[in-house]
Protein backbone atom coordinates (compact mmCIF):
# COMPACT_ATOMS: atom_id res chain seq x y z
CA UNK A 1 0.00 0.00 0.00
CA UNK A 2 1.38 3.36 -1.07
CA UNK A 3 0.99 6.13 1.43
CA UNK A 4 1.08 9.70 0.17
CA UNK A 5 2.30 12.66 2.25
CA UNK A 6 -1.23 14.06 2.29
CA UNK A 7 -2.53 10.90 3.92
CA UNK A 8 0.17 11.14 6.56
CA UNK A 9 -0.70 14.77 7.31
CA UNK A 10 -4.43 14.06 7.61
CA UNK A 11 -3.88 11.03 9.84
CA UNK A 12 -1.46 12.92 12.10
CA UNK A 13 -3.91 15.81 12.34
CA UNK A 14 -6.80 13.49 13.14
CA UNK A 15 -4.80 11.78 15.88
CA UNK A 16 -3.78 15.16 17.25
CA UNK A 17 -7.39 16.35 17.30
CA UNK A 18 -8.49 13.13 18.97
CA UNK A 19 -5.79 13.57 21.63
CA UNK A 20 -7.27 17.00 22.37
CA UNK A 21 -10.63 15.33 22.86
CA UNK A 22 -9.04 12.89 25.31
CA UNK A 23 -7.52 15.77 27.26
CA UNK A 24 -10.81 17.61 27.42
CA UNK A 25 -12.57 14.45 28.54
CA UNK A 26 -9.97 14.04 31.30
CA UNK A 27 -10.64 17.61 32.44
CA UNK A 28 -14.35 16.85 32.31
CA UNK A 29 -14.97 19.66 29.86
CA UNK A 30 -16.84 17.30 27.54
CA UNK A 31 -19.12 14.39 28.35
CA UNK A 32 -18.57 10.74 27.45
CA UNK A 33 -21.22 11.16 24.76
CA UNK A 34 -19.43 14.08 23.14
CA UNK A 35 -16.14 12.24 23.36
CA UNK A 36 -17.66 9.20 21.61
CA UNK A 37 -19.00 11.49 18.89
CA UNK A 38 -15.55 12.96 18.20
CA UNK A 39 -13.94 9.51 18.39
CA UNK A 40 -16.29 8.23 15.69
CA UNK A 41 -15.72 11.30 13.52
CA UNK A 42 -11.92 11.12 13.65
CA UNK A 43 -11.90 7.32 13.27
CA UNK A 44 -14.07 7.74 10.18
CA UNK A 45 -11.67 10.36 8.81
CA UNK A 46 -8.64 8.08 9.33
CA UNK A 47 -10.41 5.07 7.80
CA UNK A 48 -11.54 7.04 4.74
CA UNK A 49 -8.11 8.53 4.17
CA UNK A 50 -6.20 5.25 4.51
CA UNK A 51 -8.80 2.99 2.87
CA UNK A 52 -10.75 5.11 0.34
CA UNK A 53 -12.66 2.03 -0.84
CA UNK A 54 -14.60 1.94 2.46
CA UNK A 55 -16.25 5.23 1.41
CA UNK A 56 -17.51 3.42 -1.70
CA UNK A 57 -19.14 0.77 0.45
CA UNK A 58 -20.87 3.38 2.60
CA UNK A 59 -22.18 5.44 -0.31
CA UNK A 60 -23.35 2.27 -2.14
CA UNK A 61 -25.24 1.38 1.01
CA UNK A 62 -27.14 4.66 0.70
CA UNK A 63 -27.71 4.05 -3.00
CA UNK A 64 -25.40 6.84 -4.10
CA UNK A 65 -22.79 5.90 -6.69
CA UNK A 66 -20.01 8.33 -5.77
CA UNK A 67 -18.81 8.90 -2.18
CA UNK A 68 -18.21 12.57 -2.95
CA UNK A 69 -21.93 13.02 -3.69
CA UNK A 70 -22.82 11.49 -0.35
CA UNK A 71 -20.38 13.88 1.32
CA UNK A 72 -22.03 16.87 -0.39
CA UNK A 73 -25.54 15.74 0.60
CA UNK A 74 -24.56 15.21 4.20
CA UNK A 75 -22.82 18.59 4.26
CA UNK A 76 -25.89 20.40 2.98
CA UNK A 77 -28.14 18.73 5.55
CA UNK A 78 -25.67 19.53 8.29
CA UNK A 79 -25.43 23.17 7.21
CA UNK A 80 -29.21 23.53 7.19
CA UNK A 81 -29.39 22.09 10.65
CA UNK A 82 -26.63 24.35 11.95
CA UNK A 83 -28.21 27.47 10.44
CA UNK A 84 -31.46 26.55 12.16
CA UNK A 85 -29.68 26.05 15.46
CA UNK A 86 -27.93 29.38 15.08
CA UNK A 87 -31.22 31.10 14.25
CA UNK A 88 -32.94 29.73 17.34
CA UNK A 89 -29.97 30.60 19.49
CA UNK A 90 -29.76 34.09 18.04
CA UNK A 91 -33.44 34.64 18.75
CA UNK A 92 -32.95 33.51 22.35
CA UNK A 93 -30.01 35.85 22.80
CA UNK A 94 -31.99 38.67 21.30
CA UNK A 95 -34.88 38.13 23.67
CA UNK A 96 -32.50 37.95 26.60
CA UNK A 97 -30.98 41.29 25.63
CA UNK A 98 -34.42 42.84 25.27
CA UNK A 99 -35.38 41.58 28.71
CA UNK A 100 -32.22 43.04 30.17
CA UNK A 101 -32.70 46.40 28.44
CA UNK A 102 -36.32 46.47 29.62
CA UNK A 103 -35.41 45.75 33.23
CA UNK A 104 -32.87 48.56 33.20
CA UNK A 105 -35.39 50.96 31.64
CA UNK A 106 -38.09 50.07 34.17
CA UNK A 107 -35.69 50.65 37.06
CA UNK A 108 -35.05 54.23 36.00
CA UNK A 109 -38.22 56.02 34.93
CA UNK A 110 -37.44 59.71 34.55
CA UNK A 111 -39.79 62.61 35.13
CA UNK A 112 -39.13 66.29 34.69
CA UNK B 1 -65.56 56.09 37.72
CA UNK B 2 -62.69 57.89 36.05
CA UNK B 3 -60.39 55.39 34.33
CA UNK B 4 -56.66 55.66 34.68
CA UNK B 5 -55.51 56.02 31.08
CA UNK B 6 -51.86 55.73 30.08
CA UNK B 7 -50.58 56.80 26.70
CA UNK B 8 -47.56 54.75 25.67
CA UNK B 9 -45.31 56.07 22.93
CA UNK B 10 -42.33 54.22 21.49
CA UNK B 11 -39.84 56.66 20.06
CA UNK B 12 -36.71 56.05 18.07
CA UNK B 13 -34.90 59.12 16.77
CA UNK B 14 -38.00 61.28 17.01
CA UNK B 15 -36.60 64.32 18.83
CA UNK B 16 -38.11 66.62 16.20
CA UNK B 17 -41.68 65.35 16.54
CA UNK B 18 -42.09 63.85 20.01
CA UNK B 19 -42.34 67.16 21.98
CA UNK B 20 -45.17 68.34 19.73
CA UNK B 21 -47.03 65.04 20.21
CA UNK B 22 -46.63 65.26 24.00
CA UNK B 23 -47.87 68.87 24.05
CA UNK B 24 -50.94 67.96 22.05
CA UNK B 25 -51.68 65.12 24.46
CA UNK B 26 -51.24 67.42 27.45
CA UNK B 27 -53.59 69.95 25.90
CA UNK B 28 -56.19 67.20 25.73
CA UNK B 29 -55.67 66.63 29.46
CA UNK B 30 -53.76 63.39 29.29
CA UNK B 31 -51.51 63.23 32.30
CA UNK B 32 -49.98 59.80 32.10
CA UNK B 33 -47.76 60.02 29.06
CA UNK B 34 -45.03 57.42 28.88
CA UNK B 35 -42.36 57.72 26.23
CA UNK B 36 -39.99 54.83 25.72
CA UNK B 37 -36.85 56.13 24.09
CA UNK B 38 -35.65 53.11 22.19
CA UNK B 39 -31.93 53.80 22.23
CA UNK B 40 -32.20 56.87 20.02
CA UNK B 41 -29.03 58.46 18.71
CA UNK B 42 -30.61 61.91 18.74
CA UNK B 43 -32.07 64.00 21.56
CA UNK B 44 -35.33 62.09 21.91
CA UNK B 45 -34.75 61.37 25.59
CA UNK B 46 -34.20 64.99 26.62
CA UNK B 47 -36.84 66.31 24.27
CA UNK B 48 -39.50 64.02 25.72
CA UNK B 49 -38.39 64.70 29.27
CA UNK B 50 -38.48 68.47 28.81
CA UNK B 51 -41.90 68.25 27.23
CA UNK B 52 -43.11 66.71 30.49
CA UNK B 53 -43.52 63.01 29.76
CA UNK B 54 -42.33 60.12 31.88
CA UNK B 55 -39.43 58.70 29.95
CA UNK B 56 -37.99 55.21 30.02
CA UNK B 57 -34.78 54.66 28.17
CA UNK B 58 -33.68 51.54 26.34
CA UNK B 59 -29.92 51.73 26.46
CA UNK B 60 -29.70 49.98 23.11
CA UNK B 61 -32.23 49.95 20.30
CA UNK B 62 -34.53 46.93 20.54
CA UNK B 63 -37.29 47.82 18.10
CA UNK B 64 -40.78 49.19 18.35
CA UNK B 65 -42.40 46.02 19.68
CA UNK B 66 -39.90 45.78 22.52
CA UNK B 67 -40.28 49.46 23.37
CA UNK B 68 -44.07 49.26 23.49
CA UNK B 69 -43.88 46.24 25.74
CA UNK B 70 -41.60 48.15 28.11
CA UNK B 71 -44.06 51.05 28.17
CA UNK B 72 -46.99 48.70 28.72
CA UNK B 73 -45.18 46.96 31.59
CA UNK B 74 -44.51 50.32 33.18
CA UNK B 75 -48.11 51.47 32.78
CA UNK B 76 -49.38 48.25 34.35
CA UNK B 77 -47.01 48.71 37.25
CA UNK B 78 -48.29 52.26 37.76
CA UNK B 79 -51.86 51.06 37.91
CA UNK B 80 -53.18 51.79 34.43
CA UNK B 81 -56.75 50.75 33.65
CA UNK B 82 -56.46 51.46 29.95
CA UNK B 83 -53.32 51.66 27.83
CA UNK B 84 -53.27 53.50 24.54
CA UNK B 85 -50.39 52.95 22.13
CA UNK B 86 -49.64 56.03 20.11
CA UNK B 87 -47.03 56.90 17.51
CA UNK B 88 -44.26 59.38 18.15
CA UNK B 89 -44.21 60.92 14.71
CA UNK B 90 -47.52 62.74 14.86
CA UNK B 91 -49.35 60.47 12.43
CA UNK B 92 -52.10 59.74 14.96
CA UNK B 93 -54.56 62.41 15.99
CA UNK B 94 -55.13 63.18 19.65
CA UNK B 95 -58.78 63.90 18.78
CA UNK B 96 -59.28 60.21 17.99
CA UNK B 97 -58.25 59.03 21.48
CA UNK B 98 -61.67 59.38 23.18
CA UNK B 99 -63.29 57.28 20.47
CA UNK B 100 -60.65 54.57 20.72
CA UNK B 101 -60.84 54.42 24.51
CA UNK B 102 -64.62 54.45 24.80
CA UNK B 103 -65.50 50.82 24.00
CA UNK B 104 -62.77 49.64 26.36
CA UNK B 105 -63.74 52.06 29.14
CA UNK B 106 -67.34 50.92 28.88
CA UNK B 107 -66.16 47.34 29.24
CA UNK B 108 -67.65 46.33 25.92
CA UNK B 109 -64.36 45.08 24.49
CA UNK B 110 -60.83 44.33 25.72
CA UNK B 111 -58.99 45.83 22.80
CA UNK B 112 -59.68 48.44 20.18
CA UNK B 113 -57.67 48.85 17.00
CA UNK B 114 -57.52 52.08 15.08
CA UNK B 115 -58.47 51.55 11.47
CA UNK B 116 -57.75 53.98 8.71
CA UNK B 117 -59.93 52.11 6.26
CA UNK B 118 -63.25 52.38 8.06
CA UNK B 119 -63.73 55.90 6.81
CA UNK B 120 -64.76 56.45 3.22
CA UNK B 121 -61.93 58.75 2.34
CA UNK B 122 -58.93 57.39 4.17
CA UNK B 123 -56.41 59.58 2.40
CA UNK B 124 -53.99 56.69 2.35
CA UNK B 125 -51.50 56.91 -0.52
CA UNK B 126 -52.01 54.23 -3.15
CA UNK B 127 -48.78 52.27 -2.69
CA UNK B 128 -49.15 52.18 1.04
CA UNK B 129 -52.72 51.05 0.63
CA UNK B 130 -51.59 48.08 -1.47
CA UNK B 131 -49.00 47.08 1.14
CA UNK B 132 -51.43 47.43 4.00
CA UNK B 133 -54.00 45.32 2.17
CA UNK B 134 -51.39 42.62 1.68
CA UNK B 135 -50.66 42.86 5.41
CA UNK B 136 -54.36 42.42 6.19
CA UNK B 137 -54.46 39.37 3.91
CA UNK B 138 -51.41 37.87 5.60
CA UNK B 139 -52.89 38.38 9.07
CA UNK B 140 -56.10 36.76 7.86
CA UNK B 141 -54.23 33.76 6.38
CA UNK B 142 -51.97 33.34 9.41
CA UNK B 143 -54.36 33.90 12.25
CA UNK B 144 -57.79 33.71 10.69
CA UNK B 145 -58.64 37.19 11.89
CA UNK B 146 -60.29 39.48 9.39
CA UNK B 147 -59.48 43.10 10.02
CA UNK B 148 -59.78 46.21 7.96
CA UNK B 149 -56.43 47.53 9.15
CA UNK B 150 -54.15 45.11 10.93
CA UNK B 151 -51.07 47.31 11.08
CA UNK B 152 -52.14 50.44 12.80
CA UNK B 153 -50.06 51.44 15.81
CA UNK B 154 -53.04 53.18 17.38
CA UNK B 155 -54.78 50.87 19.88
CA UNK B 156 -56.31 50.77 23.32
CA UNK B 157 -55.89 47.81 25.65
CA UNK B 158 -57.76 47.09 28.83
CA UNK B 159 -55.62 46.24 31.83
CA UNK B 160 -56.78 42.66 31.56
CA UNK B 161 -55.74 42.45 27.89
CA UNK B 162 -52.41 44.17 28.47
CA UNK B 163 -51.57 41.73 31.23
CA UNK B 164 -52.32 38.71 29.07
CA UNK B 165 -50.95 39.69 25.69
CA UNK B 166 -47.41 38.47 25.09
CA UNK B 167 -45.31 40.54 22.76
CA UNK B 168 -42.20 38.61 21.77
CA UNK B 169 -41.54 40.27 18.41
CA UNK B 170 -39.09 43.02 19.14
CA UNK B 171 -39.45 44.71 15.81
CA UNK B 172 -42.33 45.57 13.55
CA UNK B 173 -43.96 42.13 13.51
CA UNK B 174 -45.48 42.98 16.89
CA UNK B 175 -48.50 44.57 15.21
CA UNK B 176 -49.49 41.25 13.68
CA UNK B 177 -48.54 39.50 16.88
CA UNK B 178 -50.97 41.56 18.96
CA UNK B 179 -53.75 40.59 16.55
CA UNK B 180 -52.70 36.95 16.91
CA UNK B 181 -52.69 37.22 20.69
CA UNK B 182 -56.14 38.79 20.75
CA UNK B 183 -57.31 35.86 18.66
CA UNK B 184 -55.52 33.25 20.79
CA UNK B 185 -56.79 34.67 24.08
CA UNK B 186 -60.28 35.11 22.61
CA UNK B 187 -60.32 38.74 23.69
CA UNK B 188 -63.14 40.91 22.47
CA UNK B 189 -62.03 43.60 20.08
CA UNK B 190 -63.41 46.29 17.88
CA UNK B 191 -62.01 48.45 15.14
CA UNK B 192 -62.47 52.17 15.48
CA UNK B 193 -62.14 54.56 12.53
CA UNK B 194 -59.19 56.90 12.87
CA UNK B 195 -57.49 59.32 10.56
CA UNK B 196 -53.80 59.01 9.85
CA UNK B 197 -51.91 62.17 9.05
CA UNK B 198 -49.52 61.29 6.30
CA UNK B 199 -46.48 63.48 6.01
CA UNK B 200 -43.25 62.93 4.18
CA UNK B 201 -41.57 61.85 7.39
CA UNK B 202 -44.21 59.28 8.32
CA UNK B 203 -44.21 57.84 4.83
CA UNK B 204 -40.52 57.14 4.94
CA UNK B 205 -40.64 54.70 7.80
CA UNK B 206 -42.68 52.10 9.57
CA UNK B 207 -44.63 49.42 7.85
CA UNK B 208 -44.62 51.35 4.65
CA UNK B 209 -41.77 49.96 2.67
CA UNK B 210 -41.86 46.73 0.74
CA UNK B 211 -38.57 45.59 2.24
CA UNK B 212 -39.89 46.13 5.74
CA UNK B 213 -43.01 44.17 4.81
CA UNK B 214 -40.90 41.25 3.64
CA UNK B 215 -38.87 41.33 6.82
CA UNK B 216 -42.02 41.28 8.94
CA UNK B 217 -43.38 38.35 6.95
CA UNK B 218 -40.08 36.49 7.37
CA UNK B 219 -40.16 37.04 11.13
CA UNK B 220 -43.76 35.90 11.32
CA UNK B 221 -43.02 32.71 9.40
CA UNK B 222 -39.98 31.91 11.53
CA UNK B 223 -41.94 32.53 14.73
CA UNK B 224 -44.99 30.61 13.67
CA UNK B 225 -43.34 27.53 12.26
CA UNK B 226 -39.96 27.23 13.88
CA UNK B 227 -40.04 28.67 17.33
CA UNK B 228 -43.32 27.44 18.66
Describe the fold and architecture.
The complex is a heterodimer of chains A (112) and B (228). Chain A has two domains: 1-51; 68-112. Chain A has helices spanning 5-26, 32-50, 53-61, 67-107. Chain A is 81% helix and 0% strand. Chain A has four helices and no strands. In chain A, helix 1 (5-26) packs antiparallel against helix 2 (32-50). By secondary structure, chain B is of the alpha/beta class. In chain B, helix 1 packs parallel to helix 2 (44-51). The longest helix of chain B is centred in the middle third of the chain and has 18 residues, at 126-143. The radius of gyration of chain B is 16 Å and the shape is globular.
What descriptive keywords fit this protein?
heterodimer, A: 112 residues, mainly alpha, 2 domains, 4 helices, 81% helix, B: 228 residues, alpha/beta, Spore Coat Polysaccharide Biosynthesis Protein SpsA, Chain A, seven-stranded mixed β-sheet, 17% strand
Query: How many alpha or pi helices of chain A?
Result: 4
Question: Which fold name is given in CATH as the topology of the domain at 5-122 and 152-169 and 178-197 in chain B?
Answer: Spore Coat Polysaccharide Biosynthesis Protein SpsA, Chain A
On the 0-100 scale, what is the average pLDDT of chain B?
A: 88
CATH architecture of the domain at 5-122 and 152-169 and 178-197 in chain B: Alpha-Beta Complex
Number of strands of chain B: 7
The fraction of residues in strands of chain A falls at under 5%
Radius of gyration of chain B: 16 Å
